Amino acid sequence: xxxxxxxxxxxxxxxxxxxxxxxxxxxxxxxxxxxxxxxxxxxxxxxxxxxxxxxxxxxxxxxxxxxxxxxxxxxxxxxxxxxxxxxxxxxxxxxxxxxxxxxxxxxxxxxxxxxxxxxxxxxxxxxxxxxxxxxxxxxxxxxxxxxxxxxxxxxxxxxxxxxxxxxxxxxx
Length: 172
Description:
Layout: E1 2-11, E2 14-24, H1 40-48, E3 54-62, E4 65-66, H2 72-78, E5 80-83, E6 90-94, H3 95-109, H4 117-130, H5 135-139, E7 141-142, H6 148-162, E8 166-169
Parallel strand pairs: 5-8
Antiparallel strand pairs: 1-2, 1-3, 3-4, 6-7
Helix pairs in contact: 2-3, 3-4, 3-6
């Protein structure tokens, strides 16, 4: 499923990752542990395609496809989900609006027909019910005033709705 081969990464001219090899099969759970500055967050950011990092050597493949040169949104469309260690607040953007945009962006990149407002509402509310997330949370701006637990529940809802093939999460 996910294969990392001899990955070397620099940021701001400093080599942060040196020769990382990792294989994660379908259904497997892996924990990357180490002291501060060991490169855990860098690895997560590189896997998701976050700008600011340069892969100087190596390859990242996902279901046999090379991800190395893909943009973050292309990686997301392929099923790579990055959960943030500290989810950001997005004032003025309701959770439902964010999810509708994310769902349809993902569908568009996959060549699927976009869902209308009713289709999105049905999908999101169904997943929210399974997670005991109330409708009020879907109306609130993304993570604004959310407790730490609410932020993580919101992230889990995003995963449930977007159904990524893999999830990369910072501290859980």
